[in-house]
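*** Fold description ***
***
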Amino acid sequence: MATIATMELTSPSRPRSPWQLLYGAVLVRRRKLAAAHAERLPMPVVSLGNLHWGGGGKTPFTAAIAADLAARGLMVAIVSRGYRRTSRGPLVVSLGGGPLVPWSAAGDEPFLLAQALPGVAVAVGEQRVAAARLLLRELPQTPDLFLLDDGFSHVALARDIELLLFPAADPFAGARLAPAGRLREPLAATRLADAVVLTGVAPAEMAPAGARLAAALAPHGFAGPGFASASASGPPRWAGGALLPLGIRVVAFAGIARPEGFFRDAERQGLEIAARLAFPDHHAYPDESIARIEGAFRRHRAAALLTTAKDALKLAGRLSPAPAVLPIVARPEVSFWEWFDARLARARR
């Protein structure tokens, strides 16, 4: 994965293509119309989103904020879409005591949030307002705030703090809208954000990274502060919880947006990677994928399979041997917490 030290973090030029300009104008108009009728909840709403199609580090960052606030005694509720879930409509995933539904009904990322965050309520729904209202009815205590996971483009729910995340490996997604590029909204939409965060930054490059991101987005209308967040991997563990030995030979696989970061972190944990298998984000692992993984395990004479927590929950009882997991967490820089605490205190007043 590229780091701030090796990539160019300069402001990309504005698109000149008539299609790009027309598409961007349509998106801006649609956003304005939806925002004019946005519903407001009786407590602060913090939105975490990005302009990319996938892979901006939103879920680990959401988990980091939720865990920090919960540790300080605040009751946090998370609302997400539940991408590629099998259920429809608003659904409570957790009331704070762990998942109440299977991962397939919740979506992999909301399920992981419910599993990893005791005391934090989670709901999913295509309409985030309906999911939030459902939680307000079901929870015995009114939450202090809502976190809106992947919320930037969902403007039907009014928010008090808008955070935009940019992955360090591909911060501007080619600066072009789909289908020619990987942006779902133009970079000019950054003017609506309260702060921007560069995720997946190397720890040694944290200090200047956020300021450089903010400066690169300033020509596109962004006027707020920029921050950085490192991705840190914990020690890899077997399914039963025991640590993997250093130097063990593994076949590593992942169905996430940017698997190269996962492979890099596995190497940094002192593992020998015999083979790397990359699958599409939110991969469902049909039988042919299982056969491919098990075939690589036998062919490379590995001692273990290694994957992400998101992938492991889809594979319970389906792989032999059961895969070990490399946990990944987000670690925002200290200055982000200082800014966020001040903004949240103002919103709560």
